Amino acid sequence: MMVALGHTAVGVIVGVTGFQLFDQTDLIGGLAITGAAGVISHYLADFIPHGHFVGPDKIKQNLLPIIIFDLLLPIVLLLGAVYLRVGFSDKLLFVLFGIGGAHLPDVLDGLLMINLIKAKGIIKMENDFHQALHWHGTGSKTLLLGIRDIWQIIMVFLAWYMI
User: Fold this and answer.
1) Which residues does 84 contact at the CB level (< 8 Å), separation at least 6?
2) 8 Å CB contact between 111 and 101
């Protein structure tokens, strides 16, 4: 799992774009396409070299702080910004679906990690696919956050601008 803030920001961008493309058409279809585009954005973002807060050997022991500060806090802040701007609206729903899709592969990874779900059938296929294209540095220095993560900060600013 890379820094979840990057996925959240890209999910906002996907959601706003989905809203712009599909708002005047079928709401349910537009939300489904936006959620699927969010999932695709996750895979594309994971393919780009990036760092993590902790190495893979320390994820389980740091899972709660990662969930609170890296996953939930940015989602609440960015969704809150959208809500303050447009209220409870179709745009907020599109952003929610974009963010949800952008995090779904890592949520499934987390559920597998804590043995809440089993790697069988479509879940196993998704996990194998996710891990196969996820960028993995080979040394401990390549796994941690660094200059290669500037693109995630750019995505945050772009998402904030698009809100």
Assistant:
1) none
2) no
* Residue from 100, 56, 58, 89 nearest 163 by CA: 89
Residue type, 156: V
pLDDT tens per residue across all 163 residues of the chain: 457 889 999 999 999 999 999 988 899 999 999 999 999 999 999 888 776 766 667 777 877 888 888 889 999 999 999 999 999 999 999 999 999 999 999 999 889 988 999 999 999 999 999 988 877 655 555 565 667 778 888 999 999 999 9
Predicted TM-score (pTM) of this structure: 0.89
For 9-61, the three-class secondary structure string (H helix, E strand, C coil) is HHHHHHHHHHHHHHCCCCHHHHHHHHHHHHHHHHHHHHHCCCCECCCHHHCHH
3-state secondary structure of 117: coil
Distance CA 5, CA 10 (A): 9
Tokens of 2: 């890379």
